[in-house]
Amino acid sequence: MDKFDWYEFQKKQASESKVPWLREFYETPLPEVGTSIKDTPLLALDFETTGLDAKKDEIISIGLVPFDLNRVYLRQSKSWLIKPKKKLNTDSVVIHGITHSDLEDAPDLNKILPEFLEAIAGKICVVHYRQIERDFLNATFKRRFGEGIKFPVIDTLQIEWDYQKRLTSGLWKRLQGKKPASVRLGASRSRYNLPTYTPHDALIDAIATAELLQAQVSHHYDEETLLSDIWV
């Protein structure tokens, strides 16, 4: 199956977008064809949301941090709390720990979007389970501006899932009852002897995702691996 052509997609969006700052985002070039993972400007990204349904739930926290294969640049990290249009439900508060009072003085998402897009423009976002970050951002843009947003990411969950499937594939392993291990962020990190962090804080999860990709590349790839071989 042919891989999605992100370069052509970005070029098309830059010429067709009606939202000025979204058009500016698409006009920022992606890393050149043939860029290796070690030379890619990486940025780990995580959202906390009011639920798991991108069509009705909302983003209430964003964390991001730039990194490369050797360092995580904590001083350049950013995080935002965002006031949702609807009240939080109790179930989501239990998971992420963000309360109504935490969000009382938080800005609307529209206020931080220009700064957010500037931070990720030209970078390759690294996420753990892209259906959250990609789907929520796309759905949010469609609701607010009538246009979605889409960009390439590296998905550490997908990398881990593919590796676990390889470990448990084959008739003999299936007969032995071997199944892929959990690919949740904490479980994935533990297999690389990375420290345990408290989950469901957007910035902490972004840092955890950055460290996980560093470990995955060290164990399963070469630093000269092409970006285009692992982005989705």
TrEMBL record:
<dbReference type="GO" id="GO:0003677">
    <property type="term" value="F:DNA binding"/>
</dbReference>
<dbReference type="InterPro" id="IPR012337">
    <property type="entry name" value="RNaseH-like_sf"/>
</dbReference>
<keyword id="KW-0378">Hydrolase</keyword>
<keyword id="KW-0269">Exonuclease</keyword>
<dbReference type="InterPro" id="IPR036397">
    <property type="entry name" value="RNaseH_sf"/>
</dbReference>
<dbReference type="Pfam" id="PF00929">
    <property type="entry name" value="RNase_T"/>
</dbReference>
<protein>
    <recommendedName>
        <fullName>DNA-directed DNA polymerase</fullName>
        <ecNumber>2.7.7.7</ecNumber>
    </recommendedName>
</protein>
<dbReference type="InterPro" id="IPR006054">
    <property type="entry name" value="DnaQ"/>
</dbReference>
<dbReference type="GO" id="GO:0005829">
    <property type="term" value="C:cytosol"/>
</dbReference>
<keyword id="KW-0540">Nuclease</keyword>
<dbReference type="InterPro" id="IPR013520">
    <property type="entry name" value="Ribonucl_H"/>
</dbReference>
<dbReference type="GO" id="GO:0006260">
    <property type="term" value="P:DNA replication"/>
</dbReference>
<dbReference type="GO" id="GO:0008408">
    <property type="term" value="F:3'-5' exonuclease activity"/>
</dbReference>
<feature type="domain" description="Exonuclease">
    <location>
        <begin position="41"/>
        <end position="222"/>
    </location>
</feature>
<dbReference type="GO" id="GO:0003887">
    <property type="term" value="F:DNA-directed DNA polymerase activity"/>
</dbReference>
